[in-house]
Amino acid sequence: MLRFAACGCRRTNAQALAYTVAQRPPSVQAMSLLDDPDYLPFKLDLANRRLLLLRLTAEQRAGAAFLDERALPVEPQAAWIPLSLLAEAAPSMHGTSADFIFHIGHCGSTLLSRLLQSWQGMQVLREPLPLRTLAAALDGRSIARDENSMLLRHMIALWSRPQASSTRTVIKATSSCNGLIEPILEVGDGRALLLDMPLVPYLSTLFKAEASVRDALAAEPGRRHHLAGLVAAGTLPEADSVAERCALGWVAERVRFHALSQGHHSARVMRIDFEDLLARPDVVLADIATHLQLPRDGLAAALASPAWSRYSKAETYAYDAADRQHDLALAGHRFATEIEVGRRWHERLLQRHPQFTAALA
Questions:
Q1: pLDDT in tens, 179-219
Q2: What is the pTM of this model?
Q3: How far, in Å, CA of 63 to CA of 215, rounded?
Q4: Fewer CB in 10 Å around end: N or C, the chain?
């Protein structure tokens, strides 16, 4: 059996983790793992041209809010394989492509993913690390587009393999992976849900938690680059404050989502407003089921899911729509000045670039 080893630690320090592989000869056992749906792509090492396959049970996958070091079992079973083997295994990896959830961050994507688990046979994988690696490499231009597409095709095929208890797969990407949406739609036949929310509740959500603001600011340079590429040089309004930078990130993703919903793959893309999902769950979930071609008999279980009343990233904590509204009201009062700064930046952008009006409506 293949084992996973850590250098003096287990899961507490991701930087210190090292993976050892007991496999002789590597190609034989690696190929067998590529045929085993219990092993999924867990970590992509582009510098050393290798992929870590990790064994996770259906229960471990369903419970993981993030497929990173936090998802590691106490005694992980894993193996590194050379990327060159993926092409050899490609014929055995054909099948139904996974569907995807893409989002702007802190907008209910984890809740939506847990609701989709209500459908029998649905496997949901949340924020797998290799997607983050490929998104960062593509954004930093350290990987050719052709190679990125090839690796995406193989990763999706491996994630899409059903375990004994599953027939469908939905992958919830990290919000930093939105640059991969179009490449993913190009290489697979899956469908995508694009989730966001209006500007004011988005800013209120960010400002009520410092970690959320840090996430938005970390994503802002890439989002700024995307938005700046759509307009004449130097015509974006200055965005120096935290609130303005958060508003810029929201605008960039709304513009991106709107373009995708009007583009070549529009029939495979569905926009979702999280506020609408909370206000009309029966209608919105029915529309999602239709888009993903899910049986209608799963709707009742989704509407009755305990996920509605739990904090989605840590389900031991109770948290429902009323709690959220209470928190947003407090944040709206406490951070009214910051939220107004962000809203005014949005208005200045539309004054300079009215072509974005439909995207930001």
A1: 999 999 999 899 999 999 999 999 999 999 999 999 999 99
A2: 0.92
A3: 23
A4: N
